[in-house]
Every structure is written in structure tokens, then in C-alpha cells.
Specification:
Two copies of one chain form a homodimer.
Chain A lengths: L9 H15 L11 H8 L3 H13 L3 E4 L3 E4 L4 E4 L6 H7 L4 E12 L2 H7 L6 E11 L2 E11 L8 H4 L3 H8 L4 E12 L2 H7 L6 E11 L4 E10 L3 E8 L5
Parallel strand pairs in A: 3-10
Antiparallel strand pairs in A: 1-2, 4-5, 5-6, 6-9, 7-8, 8-9
Helix pairs in contact in A: 1-3, 2-3
Chain lengths: 244, 244
């Protein structure tokens, strides 16, 4: 696992090696990993080096420290295919997890110029602003801020948005949601986001903006979400086009 | 832009507001933004609050501080569609940028059990290990570590991998690259990665693993890349499946 003649720093090699053991299942979720002293002795490296590797893996969510107990392999990340357009509630149920929602804000506001443009409505038109924490088995997964034209989705209430909005739109309003464009960016959790998602300030997060459209092409929503980087990974399949 | 009665912290509102001004083009790439004092006076808020908002935007790569000059709007992020499977060189040329490569490592190693499984070859079979910095107009964009079976891609040299490997595979070897699966995760730059990518340690990065396949289904490569979060965003289009 460690090659002292490699140009790569030792902590980095150890880190990649432990990551590989987790990915291969040699170290399993919930399992306690060897102590710093044991790693240091096994590979004849300093405990400082071991600590650096383990700190990095804790920050990235591969390992979890439990005070007075030791360091453990974290729960596996949720793998979210970027394929079918699905709702958070549908995703969690498909994984056998119970979706949950804490509504932080539910109100109507006049559309700002940017939101008006993105939602293809006139500036100042009434839109919902909905801010929610999405939970899986009661653990916070994502912080979501959602904008929708009130005229398009009449009758939305705080109670409805504490469940699946897509379900309401499709079954109660009979609208057909067709497609979405998502923008995926890397970011780090701000103090506020960190507190709400129960991670440390500066922890890696995925920042995702989704613009969804109805069957007739109308803009349905703009959703800005912050997903916990230690709990989420996204997958996508791609085809190579014929070269010219 | 600032609502003092909102439950959201002022710094967060200011941050989102400035971000919106950048996205709308009211503040343009390269443009100097108002000073901390000016923001503080305009919105009647403390300079500490302004500083926090601006620090966050600098960390996220929206703004850039130039010592003794001021704070400027950063170059726009490269928007990379997760659609067609393209090479880095092709992507950059399509944007009118000059692709470049610094080869950090080029060697052959025996496949570890994990890589053997992912590449669908026997354990210990010879594979290339190639580590490269990918550049656009000479600026570092991504750090890439690539594994490929030697038997499948004979004749690869250090010189070839300082250009487009896909081009060599397709035009010289006549192999047909068909598809890939990508896993996208949020992470933060390690010391080593930060130095190579010329960002600060702890800066947000996108960690992407790509497994590519040939027309006949054979595994071609496993590529692990670290993309600068301040220079890259990924987009994907999704369709809603008919609800059951």
C-alpha cells in the first residue's frame, strides 16, 4: 500500500489505500478501523502521517470519529443516478428509506428579474419561496430553496410542501412534469448551511440548481439545493458520439 | 437585496445577492466590485458582515482578490455538459481554449485487485498508471489519474499521453470508444492537489471517476479526476418517466 520511493506523499498514499479498502469492502460500514499506532507500525510510518490521512478521510466523510471509542467506516454514500427526473421522496422510498421534510420557510414573494426570467413570467409576478430540509430516515441530506409561479401551482400550502410537491402537482393539479436541466457545482458548507445539515463549516457539499419544465414547455420551478458531500454521489452514463 | 426581517443571516443574503448580480451580468467577469465600505453604507450593515459575504464568494471562486487593487468578478466557470462522452482536449478546443497537459507520472504497474476488477482483467496484469495536470490556456483545470490495460492499448508513450489519448486510441489503434459511467462527488482540495491545481488547501473540488468502455463492452480505462470547483460546473438534462 505504501511505496516510500513514490513521488506521492505518504499520507496521500495511505489515504488512497484506506479509501480503496473501504470501496473494496475490506473495511465495512460501521466497522472500527485500526488505531493510528497500528497503522504506523504496520507501514513503518509516523503517527503524524497516519493522522493526516485519517483526518482527510474524516473530512471527506469516509470515516467517522466517535469520541472515546475509535474511528469507524462511515455509512455508504447514496448513489443518485442523473437519469430519470425523480423527486426526493421517490428517491428515498426507492432506497427503502423514509423521506422527511422540515419546512423552514413558506411564503409568496414578487419574482425578482432573474427568477422572472428563469421561470418565464413577468417581473414582480407572485411566486412561492419554499425553503426545506430534506431528511432520509430523519437525517438531514439536503437544504433546498424552491421557487414556483403561484399562478401555475394554485393551492399550495405549508402542509403540502412538507410532503412531495411533485405528487401534488401531478395527482391533484393533473400537470405533466416533463424534463429538467441540472447544474452541478462543488462548494463548501457555509455556517448556516452546516448547522442545518449537521456537518462542519467548510465541509464539502454539492450545489445543484434544477430548472424543471412541464409537458407544454412552461417553466415549473427553479430549485437550488445543497447536498451533503459525505452522503451523496451522483452518477451519469454517457455515450460517445461518432467522431467527425 | 437585504431584508433585515428575514430569518436568513444578513451576510448570506448579501452573498446570494452579489451572486445574482454576477449571474445576471450586472457585475461582469473582470469588473471591480464596490469596496466593503460602499456595500456597508449602501445597505446600512456592518463591514464585518460584508467581509464575510465577500470571503465566501472568494472561496467559491465567484470573486478574486488582487492585493492592493481590490476585489474583482472572476472568470466564468466552464460549463461541461454530461452528455456526449468527450475528451478534455476536445472539450477545451470546442470552447476556443488551448488544451495542455503536464505529465506527472507515466509508468506501468501490476493491476491491484480493485483495478483488475474494474478493468475486467486478471489481478497483476500490466496496466498503465498515468497522472496528468490538464490545462486550459495554460491554467490548471484538473488533476487526472488514469489506469488502462497495456494489452488493450499497446505502444502508449509519455509523448502520446502529453496530448489526447482518445485521439491515439481511435485514430492509431482504430478502437471504438462507446460509453462511460461517471461518478461525481464533492470534495475539498488536499495540500498536494491544491498545490498542483494552484488553489488553496480546502478549496471546493469535484471528484469524478470515469469508467469507459469500448464498442465490444471491454473496459478501456478507469480515470479519477479532481476538477477545480471554481472553474468547472457540470450540466445534465433529465426526462421524467411516466408515473406508475
Amino acid at each position: 500500500m505504501i511505496n516510500k520511493h513514490s513521488p506521492l506523499p505518504i499520507y496521500y498514499q495511505l489515504e488512497q489505500g484506506i479509501k480503496e479498502m473501504i470501496e473494496k469492502g475490506q473495511l465495512k460500514p460501521g466497522e472500527m478501523i485500526p488505531s493510528e499506532r497500528e497503522w504506523a507500525e504496520t507501514y513503518d510510518i509516523s503517527r503524524m502521517t497516519v493522522r493526516q490521512a485519517i483526518n482527510n478521510l474524516v473530512n471527506d466523510g469516509y470515516l467517522v470519529r466517535k469520541r472515546g471509542k475509535g474511528t469507524f467506516v462511515a455509512a455508504t454514500k447514496i448513489e443518485q443516478p442523473l437519469k430519470g427526473l425523480t423527486s426526493f421522496s421517490e428517491d428515498m422510498r426507492a432506497r427503502g428509506m423514509e423521506p422527511g421534510t422540515n419546512v423552514l420557510e413558506f411564503r409568496t414573494i414578487p419574482a425578482s428579474p432573474t427568477l422572472a426570467q428563469q421561470l418565464d413570467i413577468r417581473e414582480g409576478a407572485e411566486i412561492y419561496e419554499i425553503r426545506r430540509i430534506r431528511l432520509a430516515d430523519q437525517f438531514p441530506m439536503a437544504l433546498e430553496t424552491l421557487y414556483m409561479p403561484c399562478a401555475l401551482v394554485p393551492g399550495l400550502t405549508r402542509e403540502i410542501v412538507s410532503g412531495s410537491i411533485y405528487e401534488f402537482i401531478e395527482t391533484k393539479l393533473g400537470l405533466v412534469i416533463r424534463s429538467a436541466v441540472q447544474i452541478i457545482e462543488a462548494s463548501v458548507a457555509r455556517k448556516l448551511e452546516a448547522d442545518l445539515l449537521q456537518v462542519k463549516e467548510g465541509a464539502p457539499v454539492l450545489s445543484i440548481q434544477r430548472n424543471s419544465y412541464l409537458e407544454n414547455g412552461q417553466s415549473l420551478e427553479v430549485v437550488k439545493s445543497i447536498y451533503r458531500g459525505d452522503r451523496y454521489k451522483f452518477t451519469v452514463e454517457m455515450e460517445r458520439k461518432k467522431s467527425k
